[in-house]
Amino acid sequence: MEVQHGSDNGCWHFLFTLPYSLSDNLHVNEGNDIPAIRPSFPKRIGARIERNLRRVYTEAKYNAHRSRAYRSGQTDSVADVVVIGAGIAGLAVAYELQQAGHRVTILEASSQPGGRASTIREPFGDGLYIDAGGFRFSPTHFLIRDYLRLFDIQYTPFYPARGDMFVYLDGKLARRKVAEPIDPDWLPRTLTSEEKWMFAQEIETNMYRVCGGVDSLVDAFVKRLAGCIHPYSEVRQITQDKSGVTVEFLRDGDKNSVRADYVVCAVPNGVLKNITLNPAPAPDKQEMISLLANRPSLLVYFQMPTEYWTGQNLTGFGVTDTVGEIWTPILDPDSEMCLTISYTKDDAALELLAMPDEVRVATTVQRCAQFLPWFGDFVQKNVVISWDEDRLICGSRSTACYHSQSQMDAVRRAEGRVHFAGEHTASLQLGWMEGALESARRVTQEIGTRAS
Prior knowledge:
Elements: E1 2-7, E2 10-16, E3 35-39, H1 41-67, E4 80-84, H2 88-99, E5 103-107, E6 119-120, E7 130-131, H3 142-150, E8 155-157, E9 164-169, E10 172-177, H4 193-203, E11 208-210, H5 215-224, E12 229-230, E13 233-240, E14 245-251, E15 254-260, E16 262-265, H6 269-272, E17 276-278, H7 283-291, E18 297-305, H8 307-310, E19 314-320, E20 325-327, E21 337-345, H9 346-353, H10 357-368, E22 381-385, H11 405-412, E23 418-420, H12 433-451
Parallel strand pairs: 4-5, 4-16, 5-12, 9-19, 13-17, 16-23
Antiparallel strand pairs: 1-2, 2-3, 6-7, 8-11, 9-10, 13-14, 14-15, 18-21, 18-22, 19-20, 20-21
Helix pairs in contact: 2-5, 2-12, 7-11
């Protein structure tokens, strides 16, 4: 059945699909078909032209950026620098300082570098992998593109080019083509600011992911920083004086210390709260260290048959008001299995975080079954990731974007010989890997200026 709806922006078609089955072995119950919301042909062509023009413009800007690309220049004055934290920001600032000729020591509290930029490969089979952080980046994130190019790492579109995405709001379910906006006349209610943001990301289909997993970028930094990274080194105190900085840390239960000319704190703000800074920072900075928080989130990864999605012409991507975003970034029709992510944030995540893991999974499956009733029948394996419960990370992306410019100036400001990096200290791309890299460049320039 087809229903046409007129609007000032063009004609919308509401197409109701017939019941379908995935295959003889993967059968979908009749009556579970999903209505589709699709704009008229001319509007779809116009949107495609607009996206292509935006892509050309972005590439022109990137080429201009490449022509004036920043590289750390060699310095005549060599400094000893301790970098605390081996996440993307810490690795990048250490790499750039080393390229400039400085001596770098990286203290990492966990067993491996990368922080939230990590990739999950177990217990999944069939060579499956999926990122636990650093999922995607925009074509306008020029710094990460620079490093991927420098290290000869490939990247590929995050969102698929074909198939249908789905949307589930207030118990109302529909599908739409990739990159198509939501018809405002279909919406059952006013969107929240977070929902508007999620839909905007889906429309911007030029988003990319790192091929082979984001840990390939981490590994590229680690390879070039061989011997500089010291795992299991949990920093407890930073004491500075006129001539340098002493960093005290625990390794295997033993107290250790290292002396340096400068220190870079490249840890999440939640971790920084547990490090004593001596002397204490200025009042406005101390206030922000106490105030800055991280948004709660929960990620549940499901191993499923690929045909679960492809048999329905679905991409495995959707926006919901029950479990947040649904992603299936690597949907290879030639592979029998795929991994689907449920990415729940804010209040809905807090509710799940109060539950044991097995209940979190069962609740997430139950909520997915509200709009895809057969979802739970095909889940084979699952993994739950909560950065909020990792005391060495203390949460997912920060709430820095909700604070004023003056407050954020205090967050990123150096205190004497101690400098601060991380996505929460970025000026533009707060919460992204690009923001972490932006902060690394800033700190490299700060130390380079002081050490010269």
